From TrEMBL:
It comes from Slackia isoflavoniconvertens. The keyword Ribonucleoprotein does not apply. Keywords: Membrane, Transmembrane, Transmembrane helix. This is DMSO reductase. The chain crosses the membrane at residues 12-34, 46-70, 90-108, 120-141, 153-172, 184-207, 227-244, 256-278. The keyword Ribonucleoprotein does not apply.
Amino acid sequence: MFDGGFSATSLAVFTALAPAGAVAFACLAAFLLVNRSQPRDWRDVLAHLLFIPLAIAWAGFIASATHLGTPANALHAINGLGRSPLSNEVVSAVAFLFFAGMAWMYSYREKPKASVMNGLLAISIVCVIVMLFHTSFAYSIATVPTWDTWLTPANLCATALLSGPALATTVLQAARVRAGKWPYALLLIAVAALAAGTVLLVCHMNFLGTVGNNVTLASALVPNYGWLIAAHAALAICGLAFQLHGLRLATSRTRGLVFSVIGCAVVIIAALLARFPFYDAYLSVGF
């Protein structure tokens, strides 16, 4: 599974962590925007905890930079803005990190203006959507038929909508705010994404059996794809079940949060498992 080298591993980590953190941030930002009339004290607590999904996204972004060879090469990644999918992906990710970071830091101001905070949160949500779009289509390369398929963006978005809401649920629990049905709605989104994502992964596995070059079939590059899909689904189901149990554990908020954190970690591991086969299936039209 790791034949692609550390570069493939770092990109798998990037496409698992960065979208998860970004979507979680968007979910929490939407929660704050919808609940603008609620008491400022718990809104501030949740705003401070935006650091958690932001840190997850940063971890993914840092991991992706390791495949560039040297940090100096990162400067060249933005030269093709508008014409290069990689440049578009990098710039959109940087834009999200900038505005999301600004929103988080602004929450620590002694008397933050609601209009400024809401504006930063809204811009961050837009940046998340743009980032997901460009990250999803960054691998539409005609000379790599195993990547140049509609399944590529669909799979990445499904993975993000699985792990992102799961992470947002845990942060809401940690903030101990009056979230109402939001955590359950987020878990429902994650369950739907898991179901759709599993089907998409199976479709991609079958698709690889129809693609090849004059050396090998793409399916031969990922012989254990079926087992990885099964492990991905099983881990995600267990993780989401842990989180649901944590939400319903009314006897102890601390124990409930522990269950939620463990469940979220398992879901993110499941998301990571879903990303490795994509990079292992790299196959160009030539040799």
